[in-house]
Specification:
The chain has 196 residues and is mainly α. Helix content is 71%, strand content 6%. The chain has two domains: 5-75, Arc Repressor Mutant, subunit A (Orthogonal Bundle), CATH 1.10.10; 117-195. The protein has a two-stranded antiparallel sheet with strand order 1-2.
């Protein structure tokens, strides 16, 4: 566009007015004439901008506010638009909100379970304790086996039976503890896996 008024056609004036109105609407903040001219890359001269802004004020599209020597122009306040919602949409929205709330409650419950579940450190400590207990039992078994082998064949059958019985009890206890350790470990790992 040229800066001379005589060279402007009516179409260019309408385009310039639309450009300024759209810019103010899109930015939705106050601008001075100089700011508008610069922001629109000098496509509209300052004098033409003044005329366009006055036209937009008269049409009610924009408003102006004066602070001291400066005047700022801004798009009129946006008013809330009324939206018509039919009952089916309202029911669908209500259903969606309820579903989201139930999912939120489920996530909260999962989070609380996760916080209450034993952590890796605790599980490792339990495993170490069970392994120590197993080693103690194995050492007792070895001790009794060596004691049995050293014992003379002349020992009475009742003492031999008692030692065998005690040995079998220790073997049974050892096997039971191994099973318990495995069950505890598997259940903890399964519980942790289900949380994730």
């Amino acid at each position: 566009m040229s800066s001379k008024k005589g060279n402007k056609s009516i179409v260019e004036a309408v385009e310039a007015e639309t450009m300024v109105r759209d810019y103010l609407r899109d930015q939705y903040r106050p601008y001075s004439i100089t700011d508008l001219v610069l922001n629109l890359h000098n496509q509209i001269t300052r004098s033409d901008m003044s005329i366009i802004l006055q036209t937009l004020i008269e049409s009610g599209d924009i408003i102006s506010k004066t602070f001291g020597k400066f005047t700022f122009y801004l798009y009129k306040e946006r008013e809330g638009e009324e939206v018509e919602i039919d009952s089916n949409q309202l029911i669908k929205l209500s259903t969606d909100v309820n579903m989201i709330n139930s999912q939120l409650n489920q996530v909260k419950q999962d989070y609380q379970r996760l916080l209450q579940a034993p952590n890796e450190q605790t599980l490792k400590q339990e495993i170490r304790n069970k392994q120590l207990s197993i080693r103690e039992l194995e050492s007792k078994i070895v001790h009794y086996q060596s004691h049995l082998s050293k014992q003379k064949t002349t020992s009475t059958s009742s003492s031999l039976e008692m030692i065998k019985s005690h040995y079998n009890k220790l073997i049974t206890i050892n096997n039971d503890r191994k099973k318990i350790v495995c069950i505890v470990i598997y259940s903890k790992l399964y519980h942790i896996r289900t949380l994730y």
